[in-house]
């Protein structure tokens, strides 16, 4: 049995694609898990799950200890061999705790997972994206976390039949207590779902100059602004929800325009899955050009206004 879980619905749908593929290779079934509700059960069935377990539990907020206790029981009851967990903030902590409870291995942030000699093999980037580690499990069950955008969801199959199993689970109450939840200050930007991103880097001299990027994004009807680490983390010219890179957001837009970005490997790791990449930089030796489909060597203060005007004339 292959089990798929994330507290993020969209990420669960992405995991179901890979889970379905692994289950087919192993001649097993794939099950999705909802904890505390069954709201998404129908969607999970229509996107590839053979069955959905809706775990009924008296939970009011996410605590990795309690969720791991529930998943541990589900894994043991269903003789699960492979566990795929969404690699977001909660998922990473949950996977580590679950692997400790089950006394088994866990590989995080995998960009590829496949079956070889009836065992799961994982691939993930290491050394800031300079190498790929290929690892194989020696223990069971095999727990893997997968980041968003690694795989696309399967097409929806309307009316796909499958079983929804509702069951109440007791679990170990965590002695920890959440005393305060403070929402992070953001600008409401969602770069991870954007189809067009215009991104800025250290090539900009002043904060006000970022208007050139906004104007280009507006002309492209994209309106999504990204940036490299120095702009968000060092200079604070944009909030961290714009930050694209190994420590920021990983994106997969159809079009990515990098303006004044040198192309350090940490930034490339966050945008390497983009469809078409356009780079604008005055340094012809900038590393960003090695990852670009199209490159413009020139001063961004001269290139961007001309490019924006040309796009406005073309698109109206």
Please tell me about this protein's structure.
Helix 3 packs across helix 4 and helix 5 runs parallel beside helix 8. It is built from eight helices and 15 strands. The mean pLDDT is 91. With 316 residues, the protein is of the alpha/beta class.
What's the layout of helices and strands?
Elements: E1 2-5, H1 9-26, E2 30-35, H2 41-46, E3 51-56, H3 64-77, E4 82-86, H4 89-102, E5 106-107, E6 112-116, E7 119-126, E8 131-136, E9 142-146, E10 163-168, E11 196-200, H5 211-219, E12 225-227, H6 229-234, E13 255-259, H7 265-271, E14 276-281, E15 294-297, H8 300-315
Parallel strand pairs: 1-2, 1-4, 2-3, 3-10, 4-9, 5-9, 11-12, 11-13, 13-14, 14-15
Antiparallel strand pairs: 6-7, 7-8
Helix pairs in contact: 3-4, 5-8
Question: What are the defining features of this structure?
Answer:
316 residues; seven-stranded parallel β-sheet; single chain; alpha/beta
The largest pleated sheet is described as:
7 strands, parallel
Query: What is the H/E order?
Result: EHEHEHEHEEEEEEEHEHEHEEH
Number of helices: 8
Amount of helix: 25-40%
Protein structure class? alpha/beta
Overall pLDDT score:
91
Output the radius of gyration: 22 Å
* Relative strand content: 15-25%
Let me know the number of strands.
Answer: 15
Overall 3D geometry? Answer: elongated
How far do the termini sit from each other? 54 Å
Structure at a glance:
With 316 residues, the chain is an alpha/beta fold. Helices cover 28% and strands 24% of the residues.
């Amino acid at each position: 049995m292959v089990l798929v879980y994330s507290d993020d619905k969209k990420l669960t749908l992405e995991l179901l694609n890979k889970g379905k593929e692994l289950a087919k290779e192993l001649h097993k079934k794939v099950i999705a898990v909802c904890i505390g509700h069954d709201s998404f059960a129908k969607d999970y069935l229509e996107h590839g799950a053979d069955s959905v377990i809706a775990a009924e539990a008296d939970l009011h907020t996410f605590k990795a200890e309690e969720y791991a206790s529930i998943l541990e029981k589900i894994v043991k009851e269903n003789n699960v061999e492979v566990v795929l967990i969404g690699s977001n903030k909660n998922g990473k902590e949950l996977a580590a705790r679950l692997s400790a409870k089950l006394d088994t291995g866990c590989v995080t942030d995998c960009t590829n997972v496949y079956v070889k000699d009836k065992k799961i093999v994982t691939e993930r980037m290491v050394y800031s994206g300079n190498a790929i580690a290929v690892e194989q499990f020696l223990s069971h069950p095999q727990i893997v976390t997968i980041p968003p955008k690694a795989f696309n969801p399967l097409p929806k199959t309307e009316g796909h039949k499958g079983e929804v199993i509702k069951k109440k689970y007791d679990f170990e109450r965590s002695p920890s207590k959440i005393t305060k939840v403070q929402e992070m200050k953001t600008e409401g930007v969602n770069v991870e779902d954007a189809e067009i991103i215009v991104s800025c880097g250290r090539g900009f001299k002043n904060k006000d100059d970022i208007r050139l990027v906004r104007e280009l994004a507006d002309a492209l009807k994209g309106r999504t602004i990204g940036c490299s680490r120095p702009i968000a983390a060092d200079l604070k010219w944009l909030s961290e929800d714009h930050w694209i890179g190994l420590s920021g957001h990983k994106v997969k837009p159809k079009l990515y325009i990098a303006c004044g970005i040198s192309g350090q490997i940490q930034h490339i790791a966050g945008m390497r899955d983009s469809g078409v990449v356009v780079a604008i930089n005055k340094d012809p030796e900038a590393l960003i050009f090695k990852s670009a489909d199209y490159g413009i060597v020139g001063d961004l203060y001269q290139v961007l206004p001309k490019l924006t005007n040309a796009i406005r004339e073309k698109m109206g």
